[in-house]
Automatic annotation (TrEMBL):
<dbReference type="GO" id="GO:0006729">
    <property type="term" value="P:tetrahydrobiopterin biosynthetic process"/>
</dbReference>
<protein>
    <recommendedName>
        <fullName>GTP cyclohydrolase I</fullName>
        <ecNumber>3.5.4.16</ecNumber>
    </recommendedName>
</protein>
<comment type="similarity">
    <text>Belongs to the GTP cyclohydrolase I family.</text>
</comment>
<dbReference type="InterPro" id="IPR001474">
    <property type="entry name" value="GTP_CycHdrlase_I"/>
</dbReference>
<dbReference type="InterPro" id="IPR020602">
    <property type="entry name" value="GTP_CycHdrlase_I_dom"/>
</dbReference>
<dbReference type="InterPro" id="IPR043133">
    <property type="entry name" value="GTP-CH-I_C/QueF"/>
</dbReference>
<dbReference type="GO" id="GO:0003934">
    <property type="term" value="F:GTP cyclohydrolase I activity"/>
</dbReference>
<feature type="region of interest" description="Disordered">
    <location>
        <begin position="1"/>
        <end position="20"/>
    </location>
</feature>
<feature type="compositionally biased region" description="Basic and acidic residues">
    <location>
        <begin position="1"/>
        <end position="10"/>
    </location>
</feature>
<dbReference type="GO" id="GO:0005525">
    <property type="term" value="F:GTP binding"/>
</dbReference>
<dbReference type="GO" id="GO:0006730">
    <property type="term" value="P:one-carbon metabolic process"/>
</dbReference>
<dbReference type="Pfam" id="PF01227">
    <property type="entry name" value="GTP_cyclohydroI"/>
</dbReference>
<dbReference type="GO" id="GO:0046654">
    <property type="term" value="P:tetrahydrofolate biosynthetic process"/>
</dbReference>
<feature type="domain" description="GTP cyclohydrolase I">
    <location>
        <begin position="65"/>
        <end position="244"/>
    </location>
</feature>
<comment type="pathway">
    <text>Cofactor biosynthesis; 7,8-dihydroneopterin triphosphate biosynthesis; 7,8-dihydroneopterin triphosphate from GTP: step 1/1.</text>
</comment>
<dbReference type="InterPro" id="IPR043134">
    <property type="entry name" value="GTP-CH-I_N"/>
</dbReference>
<keyword id="KW-0378">Hydrolase</keyword>
Amino acid sequence: MSDSNIKKGNEQLAEQATHPDDSGYISIRIRERIRQAGARFHANDNIARFIEPGELDQLQQEVQDKMQAVLSSLVIDTDSDHNTNETAKRVAKMYLREVFAGRYTEAPQVTEFPNIEKLNELMIVGPIQVRSACSHHLCPIMGKVWIGIMPNEHSNLIGLSKYARLVAWLMERPQIQEEAVKHVADLLMKKVNPDGLAVVMDADHFCMQWRGVRDMESRMINSVMRGSFLNDSDLRKEFLSLIRAR
Ligand SMILES: Nc1nc2c(ncn2[C@@H]2O[C@H](COP(=O)(O)OP(=O)(O)OP(=O)(O)O)[C@@H](O)[C@H]2O)c(=O)[nH]1
């Protein structure tokens, strides 16, 4: 980072400090609030409730300044290289507003309708295209998710698009696939309260393709079965054969 960039970054951080005695790093204040609440802030946790209005902009600026330092340590001349001149800014925006946005924003609003007609037939949604990142290398995970729902009279019905919105909100975080699928199942159990739920995810892990073992063929497929999908092997088979046919 050039001296002028460092100075600019420091001035911006100083301006952001609302208390004269804090370091100016908004991430420190947010972390402190989370710790005081006894909450967790792993890569796949949502921390939106600890971020006050306007603070996400400050956090993005902090990430930008630190990303600029990473580029500088990579010995990239971001001052004269027109291609990387604004890379720190782009990457900060991409992390906070796009690929990891599920950490920093509240869950999408979902209208829940009562199951007036007492529907109890298998319903399948998918393939829902999903984009996530592994928490080990922050490399993309790109894949598909299928959801099977067996409602009962106590279930809520939610709009079809809401499955995709909820799944996207959970996926836009660094994580491992096993936990991602479990989180999808937990959230849908809470929202829909079905008799049974099945979630299958099939994804490419770029940390195995772009780098590391550089295996372009292998993928990860995993599933979570709850309630009647666990207890009723015919239902499970019907679900799996219907998604296989797609
Ligand atoms: N179980 C699981 N592993 C994952 C997932 N995404 C990435 N990984 C793996 O996480 C592992 C991280 O392993 P490490 O040994 O700590 O890192 P590394 O030395 O860079 O590993 P290599 O990829 O083998 O070069 C790698 O084997 C990845 O393939 C996931 O969703 N689930």
